[in-house]
Specification:
Elements: H1 3-23, H2 26-46, H3 52-72, H4 82-98, H5 107-123, H6 125-132, H7 137-154, H8 160-181, H9 187-208, H10 217-242
Helix pairs in contact: 1-2, 1-7, 1-10, 2-3, 2-5, 2-6, 2-10, 3-4, 3-5, 3-6, 4-5, 5-10, 6-10, 7-8, 7-9, 7-10, 8-9, 9-10
Keywords: Membrane, Transmembrane, Transmembrane helix
Organism: Cellulomonas rhizosphaerae
Transmembrane segments: 56-72, 78-99, 111-130, 136-156, 161-182, 188-208, 220-243
């Protein structure tokens, strides 16, 4: 899948998250769960892990478990059960390795890659947490819009450093613009949130863009959803720091 296609699809997904955040409630949870499942399906092949079925199962269960845990937590802090979910997923990663019947080649790489993928999937629960936080809907919308714009800019044929600077700047402008028209968030907070999202998008682009596995469908889908999932926890943390 070409870079331009991946960038456009990522931007569309981020825009859908923004719409879900504006609506609030269950749509954000459902969108986050879908993102976790898609990431789980493609991450093992994207990372070149030796036991894709087991890794996908662990990552999917970890991501969905995190989304559900945050959704059903009755009051703040909404992420208080997230460490329990992640720790349980780590145990499942070792259980998955015990089920292998291929000689357990590249064992350390397999465990490390599965745990890393689970951490990325768990991060999507940040969208649910910030969406449930009082006054958090504007943060979801602003962060998702900054991600959508930054992801679209990544597709432009720019030199690596120039592309990173432009991506960060445009995302910051998108965050500030969203804050200017949304309630309960000031322009400076929106600017800083957009800047953080833009830096993340540019970094992920540099890390994953040249992987040969992106020519295949499932790894490409994982790369498409990766920025959206990771941005969830980023928006939550930055939002709590800037807005409270």
């Amino acid at each position: 899948m070409q870079l331009a296609t991946r960038a456009v699809v990522t931007a569309v997904l981020a825009a859908l998250v923004a719409v879900a955040g504006y609506v609030g409630g269950m749509p954000v949870t459902v969108a986050s769960g879908i993102l976790a499942v898609v990431l789980a399906a493609g991450w093992p092949t994207l990372a070149g892990l030796p036991f894709p079925p087991g890794s996908s199962a662990v990552i999917g269960l970890g991501g969905l478990g995190a989304v559900v845990a945050v959704h059903v937590t009755p009051d703040q802090p909404y992420l208080r059960y997230l460490p329990v979910v992640f720790a349980s997923a780590i145990i499942l990663a070792f259980v998955s390795e015990l089920l292998r019947r291929d000689g357990r080649t590249r064992l350390v790489e397999s465990v490390a890659g599965t745990v890393t993928g689970t951490l990325v999937a768990v991060a999507v629960a940040g969208w649910v947490a910030i969406g449930r936080t009082p006054g958090g809907e504007p943060l979801v919308v602003g962060g998702a819009l900054a991600l959508a714009v930054g992801s679209a800019v990544v597709a432009l044929p720019l030199a690596p450093w120039l592309g990173a600077v432009v991506t960060a700047a445009v995302s910051a402008a998108a965050g500030a613009g969203a804050a200017a028209v949304l309630p309960d968030i000031d322009v400076v907070a929106g600017l800083l949130l957009g800047l953080a999202v833009g830096i993340l998008v540019a970094t992920l682009h540099v890390l994953f863009d040249r992987l040969p596995t992106l020519e295949r469908r499932l790894p490409a889908l994982a790369a498409i959803t990766l920025p959206v999932t990771v941005t969830g926890i980023l928006v939550y943390v930055v939002g709590r720091v800037l807005v409270g």
